[in-house]
Amino acid sequence: MSAPFVTPAPGPRLDALGELEQLSLAAGQPELSAEIRRVGAGLGRRELTVAVLGQFKRGKSSLLNALAGCPALPTGVLPTTAVATYVVRGPRGLRVVGADGGAIDAPLTSVARYVSEKENPGNMLGVSRVEVSVPMPEWATGVTFVDSPGVGSANDANTAAARRLLPEVDAALFVLSPDPPITADELAFLGEAKRHAAKFFFVVNKIDLLADGQREELLDYLARLLRERCGFGEVRLYRTSARNAARLAGEELPSDGSDLRELAHDLREFLGARRDDALGQVTRARTVRFALRLRAQIELAERAARLSQEERRRRLGAVEARAAELRREHRAFRALLEQDVDALIAELPERIDGSWRPMGPPIVEALNERLDSLDAWTAGGLSAAFDREFREAVRPAVSRMRLTVASQAATDLQKLTRRLGERLQGWSDQLRSVVRDEFGVDLPPLPVEAEPLGASRSSDRIDPLSEGSLVAQTIMILPAGALRRRLRGRLAETVEAELDAQGGRLRSDLAGSLTQAWHQTRDRLDRQLSRDLALVEEALRGGRTAESALLAGSEPWQERMQGVLVRTGEIARAAGAEAGP
């Protein structure tokens, strides 16, 4: 990647984050401290993440293509983006990161294979993130643009993936369009995004579909809705037609009546010349969010510590009893889902058989037509020519079979893991509820990531006929004419045998990868439940991590926690005041 656009200079606002990091450690919250340190390090390097958010089919990918100045991301009639795509400034390239952390480099032209709903439905390839590097303008150095999956589509996984992005979003390009202007799903998602992003650019795309009078009516309606329903105050709406923009960030923007030039200018200002102001806004927003989380944990710890030993034991016992219940419920529900996963794997042979059998007759018919046109003087030449035709005819069918069955299996696995995720979120909410009832403290909710880690891609390999097929066993002793008749006579048998063999290979691949995906996802969800329980139990025991058991009830600990609580409140108020209304 290129050198940073500006020189790092942490400044006083980052000092507040650094202090929160230390206060989190003092309060016995090492996980929160590590998260604050990670965010602060990125801001110290003057890096920003700008996400393109909104409902599916609003033109998000087209807008980001215009920003990048090249068709780096796939677009289409159907929802296209299934995996979040990170676009940065640099030499053209593509890097694909798997759920296991492994990464491969690939041609930029193959990006659709990994991120599109058509070629990677339900993220069956198990892609964690896709990183696209393109030569954007210098002001984009240190900025990561994210093309997010659209919310509100038929695939709930896309909405879940978009929501998981929000905690890392510093600024957002929120894309709307006339069809329809805004939905309930978008309003709910926008409310979530507002809790994370420090800056919003509202883009009304596809404005070229409306007449002049309709445009103004739409813009007035959206501005009023964003003010009244979302509390954004005065809103600037940028009219765009991303599909007509050859380059958003260049000089040769079309004069089509849109606001693309203004949007490009304001983005350049915010991310380039005004980078310090942008970093300040983001730092203030992050400081408030972290301070409120830490404050809730400290309040819980301090309230528990101020109770009498008997009363603290009673209330802690109530929370622990509910936590033990939740763990039992989780184990029982997970065992039921294990049976569903086993049933899903057991259904694979029937699904695969039903997938490949309709493909056989059309392949046989096509090969019969091609057989007469193959010119060869010898049996060996005819065999080689027919082998090429055979593989070209069968391989697409194998790919379709793999895509169909793997997509169905991935969708079913998503449903199962989503059910477990929903239960976990409910259990987390119940745990927070009992803490509120017993101690009067509202702990901030922590998200549950319930998407499966994906299934591996099965092989499309087609073995040459000369490597052991029934036909090939006699080709060397037959004249070409006789071999042609023999090929034709055994064609249906050969095609069926090949598709059956490929189905067996697919069955083995999918059974292994589905089992692995389920186990990895299940273990991750188990860790999330343990995380939620551990945070509550740790706070209730005085928030100590490496301290003596006696320290929780001692006066020095209470004085120190009170000091941390007061300072945390001061930091939150100062950052909030700087952020303005």
Question: Can you describe what's shown?
Answer:
The protein has two domains: 210 residues, P-loop containing nucleotide triphosphate hydrolases (Rossmann fold); 230 residues, no CATH class. It starts with 10 loop residues before the first helix and ends with a helix. The protein is globular. With 581 residues, it is α/β, with parallel strands linked by helices. The protein has 16 helices and nine strands. α7 links the parallel β8 and β9. The protein has a nine-stranded mixed beta sheet, with helices on both faces.
Features:
9-stranded mixed sheet, single chain, 58% helix, disordered N terminus, Rossmann fold
Quick take:
With 581 residues, this protein is α/β, with parallel strands linked by helices. Helices cover 58% and strands 8% of the residues. Helix 7 (212-230) links the parallel strand 8 (199-204) and strand 9 (237-239).
